From TrEMBL:
One of its GO terms (molecular function) is fatty-acyl-CoA binding. GO terms for biological process: fatty acid beta-oxidation using acyl-CoA dehydrogenase; fatty-acyl-CoA biosynthetic process. PANTHER family: GLUTARYL-COA DEHYDROGENASE, MITOCHONDRIAL. InterPro entries: Acyl-CoA_Oxase/DH_mid-dom, Acyl-CoA_Oxase/DH_mid-dom_sf, AcylCo_DH-like_C, AcylCo_DH/oxidase_C, AcylCoA_DH/ox_N, AcylCoA_DH/ox_N_sf, AcylCoA_DH/oxidase_NM_dom_sf, Glutaryl-CoA_DH_mitochondrial. This is Glutaryl-CoA dehydrogenase. Residues 234-380 form the Acyl-CoA dehydrogenase/oxidase C-terminal domain. It comes from Micromonospora matsumotoense. Gene3D superfamilies: Acyl-CoA dehydrogenase/oxidase, N-terminal domain (1.10.540.10), Butyryl-CoA Dehydrogenase, subunit A, domain 2 (2.40.110.10), Butyryl-CoA Dehydrogenase, subunit A, domain 3 (1.20.140.10). Residues 15-127 form the Acyl-CoA dehydrogenase/oxidase N-terminal domain. It comes from the Bacteria. Belongs to the acyl-CoA dehydrogenase family. Residues 131-221 form the Acyl-CoA oxidase/dehydrogenase middle domain. Its cofactor is FAD.
Length: 387
């Protein structure tokens, strides 16, 4: 897109504004992410606060939301931004997705006026970081079974439980935490420095190492009545946030795949074996052609879903089609590109294996492939096969 990879001239169907936003984000990634990301990944450390402020300055945080300091961009523009960010690293795109599409979206969609004013402008500017706690140590794909509890005590709420694998938790100022109550699942805004809140970093990840992930422990956390998100009632609320965030992933995964493909194309053009560049072998061209075809199909899918979102007609199972296909294909592309680089493919000097490793997390979070297959299967058959 904007490159030789754009076999189908998809670029031509983007508006001038969409192309401009893409160019700005691509430049930011070139300047601020690419030179450092291999080191962040290797060290398992990322300057999340610094990056959040820079992304905030560019209007990337909650950019598809309106009001409260948010940019009000189209779904397609937001998707293109995710693609460019993830061409840098899936962890960097995750920072933006969790902030904008999970934490900010939950407050924007389900919060009261005071809550929105308190948090959204600061989060849009990257001055405050949010996280989104749904997954628990014993409940991942099946959040309906969650055991984190919130009980009323006078006007207050008291929360007990644990959330696992929570992006940004150790660096967050506020957590959107989902808990079981007598009225069903409700959402709470938890200041991460409140007494009884712990956020331990999960270390030794082999994937998404340029992203901070943590476990949230809630031990008798007492919150005032206004910590409750008033409009979020039932599991539908957090699930709608996930539908929102998955749209960014549909695009983002293509960014990681594009970076792999561009790396493989340039490597194959210059690496010579048997007296000719790897790119000149039919077997290499077959790989490149198949990958480029899948990438372009994925891009058409992302654009179609983005246009449906902008028209206000996008349905959750359509997002499942995009998440399932684009992440699965991106991972296949990353692994295939790695073979083209031979031994260099396993080196951190090249981005390919980092992207492939990252995409393993992207395949799992925001609904695993199997869960999206079940969503699509239910739509096709009318039968739920989850339980
Ligand atoms: C790096 C990273 C960051 C994350 N960030 C967040 C975050 O910010 N917030 C958050 O809430 N969560 C986050 N997650 C958690 C993620 O959403 C969960 O890992 C995911 O939902 C899967 O849950 P699980 O890991 O418990 O796997 P499980 O639910 O235990 O599933 C294990 C395997 O069984 C399969 N399976 C489960 N049920 C079925 C079924 N009915 N039929 C067939 N197969 C099934 C799954 O598809 C999977 O392959 C993150 C995860 C990672 C890795």
């Amino acid at each position: 897109m904007g490159t030789a990879l754009d076999l189908l001239d998809v670029d031509a169907s983007l508006s001038e504004e969409e192309r401009q936003i893409r160019a700005v984000v691509r430049q930011l990634v070139d300047d601020r992410v690419r030179p450092h990301v291999a080191g962040w990944y290797e060290d398992g450390q990322v300057p999340a606060r610094e990056l959040a402020r820079e992304f905030g300055r560019l209007g990337l945080l909650g950019m598809h939301l309106t009001g409260y300091g948010c940019a009000g961009a189209s779904a397609v523009a937001y998707g293109l931004a995710c693609l460019e960010l993830e061409a840098g690293d899936s962890g960097v795109r995750s920072l933006v997705s969790v902030q904008g599409s999970l934490a900010m979206y939950a407050i924007w969609r389900f919060g009261g006026e005071e809550q929105k004013r308190r948090w959204l402008p600061a989060m849009a500017a990257g001055e405050a970081i949010g996280c989104f706690g749904l997954t628990e140590p014993d409940h991942g794909s099946d959040p309906a079974s969650m055991t984190t509890r919130a009980r009323r005590d006078g006007d207050d709420w008291v929360l007990d439980g644990a959330k696992m694998w929570i992006t940004n938790a150790p660096v967050a100022d506020v957590g959107v935490v989902w808990a079981r109550t007598d009225e069903g699942v409700r959402g709470f805004l938890v200041p991460m420095d409140a007494p009884g809140v712990g956020a331990r970093e999960i270390r030794r990840k082999m994937s998404l190492r340029a992203s901070v992930t943590g476990e949230i422990v809630l031990d008798g956390v007492r919150l005032p009545a206004d910590a409750l998100l008033p409009e979020a009632v039932g599991l539908r609320a957090p699930l709608s946030c996930l539908t929102e965030a998955r749209q960014g992933i549909v695009w983002g995964a293509l960014g990681a795949a594009r970076d792999c493909l561009e790396t493989a194309l340039s490597y194959a053009a210059t690496r010579t074996q048997f007296g000719r560049p790897l790119a000149g072998f039919q077997l290499t061209q077959a790989k490149l052609a198949d990958m480029a075809v899948e990438w372009n199909k994925g891009l058409l899918l992302a654009l179609h879903l983005g246009r449906l979102a902008d028209a206000g007609t996008l349905r959750p199972e359509q997002v499942s089609v995009g998440k399932l296909n684009n992440v699965r294909e991106a991972l296949t592309i990353a692994r295939q590109c790695r073979t083209i680089l031979g031994a260099n493919g396993v080196s951190g000097e090249y981005p390919v294996m980092r992207h492939a490793n990252n995409l393993e997390s992207v395949l799992t979070y925001e609904g695993t492939s199997e869960i999206h297959q079940l969503v699509i299967g239910q739509r096709l058959t009318g039968l739920s096969a989850f339980g």
